[in-house]
Amino acid sequence: MAWVWLFIAGLLEIGWAVGLKYTEGFTRLVPSALTLASMAGSVGLLGVALKDLPLGTAYAVWTGIGTIGTALFGIVVLGEPSGTLRLVCIALITCGILGLKLAH
Predict the structure, then answer these.
(1) Which of 36, 49, 93, 94 yields a CA-CA distance of 20 to 30 A from 70?
(2) Each residue's pLDDT tens digit, 53-77
(3) Mind telling me which residue stretches traverse the membrane in this protein (predicted)?
């Protein structure tokens, strides 16, 4: 179950990272509230996952999910660059996450 909590925490990590884009410096109430809720949920679920998972593995997977999801959101929704090198780097992060999961 720890991996499920960690995965959800990673998704919430994406939520708050993306949310920061829409808070306009925390001057917009609804985006700010949703971003803060995502932050709290993400860190809270990471804490729950850490009961059963090693710190280094859990933290790397958590930030990796957030990094990949946020980068892909930027490419797909915000029209950020999607060059070959960028996609290769995202794939390498994905391989690292899978490797940590398999090594656990």
Answers:
(1) 49
(2) 999 999 999 999 999 999 999 999 9
(3) 33-50, 57-78, 84-103
Instruction: Extract the tokens encoding 25.
Output: 């410096």
Phi/psi of residue 35, nearest 5 degrees: -65, -45
| CB of 10 closer than 8 Å to CB of 62 | yes
Place of tokens 């949920």: 41
> DSSP readout, 6-66?
HHHHHHHHHHHHHHHHHSTTTTSHHHHHHHHHHHHHHHHHHHHHTTTS-HHHHHHHHHHHH
Residue spans per domain, the chain? 1-103
66 Cβ contact partners less than 8 Å away, ≥ 6 residues apart: 10, 13, 14, 17, 42
* Token pair recorded at residue 1: 């179950």
